[in-house]
Amino acid sequence: MKLSKARFVGKLALRDIKEDKKVSAIVILMLSFSFLNLVFFPAFINGLSLTFTNSIIEAQTGHVSIEAENGRLSNVNSLVKKISRLEDTEKVEKVIRVRSTASYEGESTPVTLVGTSANQFTGYTSKMRSGMFLKEDSSEAVVGQFLTDESSISRVNTIEIEQGRVLTLRSENYSQEYKVRGVIGTDGGLGGLSEQVYLNYDNLEELTDNQNEADILKIFLNNRGAAEDFKNRLQELNTRGEVKTWKEQSNLANAINSTFSIVISILSLVGYIVALAATGVVIFINTTKRVREMGIIRAIGAKKKQVIQIFVLEGLMFGLAGVLIGNLMTAGIDSYLSANPIGSPVGPISTQISSQLLLSRSTGMLLTSIIAGFIPAYIISKTEIIRTIENR
Amino acid sequence: MKIIEAENLTKTYQMGEVEVNAVKNLNLGIEKGSFVSVMGPSGSGKSTLMHLLGLLDMPTDGELVISGRKTSDLNERHRAEMRLKRIGLIFQFYSLLTGFDSLQQVILPQMLDNVKEERARDRAKECLKKVGLGDRIDHKPSELSGGQRQRVAVARALAGNPNILLADESTSQLDTETSKKIMELYRDISNQGKTVITVNHEEELGEMADRKIWLEDGKLKKRNI
Question: Is the minimum CB–CB distance between B75 and chain A shorter than 8 Å?
């Protein structure tokens, strides 16, 4: 299309938008909100999934884990040294779990006792409800919050213990007292954090007489994207036990994603239909208002395709304005939620907006606007000139 | 030299089960530069004839030759091209585009013909001056009288420098005095070598043309060409 013809089409399209500014503003606002709807929900689900995955990684799996297939991993200290020397390794956490009974002032409850070598790990320290997490070389315990108060979702009974009190851990082979250094937990009790009792790995090793063993080695990497490659390198070390990456362990997060993908698809469809209807109705009204005018411009030499281009461009202009404002609104909400994440049982959730998401939704919205302009324009361009001119 | 030649030109409409011959076996030849008035009672086929001559409609039968070119050979795109470059059309009802001032109304069709902006602007001013609206170039249709609007439509039709100007009852909404002025304008345009064909309801206005054609029931009743 030559420049002067493009200007002809542009002037007529812009005239329609400028002539009824209020209606144009409403359409653009509707498109902006449709765009926000198209982006916000998937971005929120991405955020939820990410928070959930991070919680699972921190509390249960690490980026790569080695778990004993039968019994426990043995000779783990030398294995930890080997793994620590591998590229991408940030830290390795030895975890040992035993069943025990926790008692306080005559109240007892069965608990899982967790011995961990990662006492400075933020996965624990950031989830402290009160007090501090374990200190190296100290013989203190950290208790899950469900042991401290009543909770309907807990699988353990409360023993109403508090920070600073002395907890007794016992089994057939041992009975030992520990001062409670802190209380740990999450709102939803994710990963069992809230119902376990934590000791330093060395303390638990000593208590249970399990030497140089672990139930699981949790390996944290500098870059979690390298997990698959790291797994291959680990397997070359001939480690005993099953090696899994965080992705392989994130079945629940994957299930969340696949469940919500159907909801996202339906909501996206609704968003596009709203955009199509908003733009389509206004352009349809414009075409019916301008039937005779379109006949006149064809009579003075415009071709059918130029009539179509006028309304397609009008739709595109609405779409561009809607996408632009929608992007600004999205950026505003995203930065607000980044600063003020929504609290949830799995942790604080903020939106996760990828450039791919923005690009696909922007393109979808523009295509919808073009289609909304094309359909009524095509109908009017098909009408005989005489009929359009006689439409008074 | 004949600029328009019609041979057995026929246009039949299907109205339900009834066929209506709006124009029937019309034979016509119009000389270049002439000023012709088509007259006749309502339903005589005047507007249908103008639509056929303006390439807005296709004849059911017969042949129409414009500037030596058979129009039956033209496809939709070429007909639009011919309307743009060779035929200027003025309609019965006000046909200006809302929201544009007089200057823009005359510039717009030139854009379709890829005329450069500066040249289109100069040409538009020249055309508006020619129709006596040199001082109304920035007025929108709602700020103009009926006669002035039709003059803008004439200026727009002249902008592409067409050989033929077709005015279909272009004075029907105007008072007699304004109508006469518009007819005088057509005469001036005709005097500059352009062929002007007008449809007039009122005989007095039709008489102002050099040549007249009377239609009745789609047929040529008489002519003084």
Answer: no
Asked if the C-beta of B54 comes within 8 angstroms of chain A's C-beta atoms, the answer is yes
Beta pairing partners, A113: A98, A197
Place of tokens 């007008």: B198
CB-nearest to B76 from A11, A299, A304 is A304
| A91 CB-near residues (< 8 Å, 6+ apart) | A84, A118, A121, A219, A220
For B50-109, how does the pLDDT look when each residue is reduced to its tens digit (9 = 90+)?
A: 999 999 999 999 999 999 999 988 998 999 999 999 999 998 877 899 889 999 999 999
Q: Are residues A258 and A372 in the same domain?
A: yes
Give the three-class secondary structure for A9: helix
pTM: 0.77
Residue B4 corresponds to which tokens in the numbers above?
Answer: 């328009």
Q: What is the mean pLDDT of each run of 10 residues along chain B (225 residues)?
A: 92 87 91 92 90 94 93 91 92 85 95 91 92 91 90 90 91 83 88 92 85 89 67
Q: Is residue A248 part of a domain?
A: no
Contacts with A300 from chain B: Cβ below 8 Å: 83-84, 89, 109, 112, 156-157
Domain chopping of chain B, boundaries = 2-224
Q: Which of A217, A240, A263 is the last residue of a domain?
A: A240
Give the number of beta-carbon pairs within 8 Å between A and B: 78
B140 min Cα distance to partner chain A (Å): 13
Cross-strand bridge partners of residue A109 = A102
In the CATH hierarchy, which fold is given to the domain comprising B2-224?
A: Rossmann fold (3.40.50)
Is A22 a domain residue? yes
Q: What is the ipTM, given to two decimal places?
A: 0.89
Give me the torsion for CA of A302, A303, A308, A310, rounded to 10°: -20
Name the residue range of residue A223's domain: 70-240
HEC assignment per residue over A135-152: CCCCCEEEEEHHHCCCCC
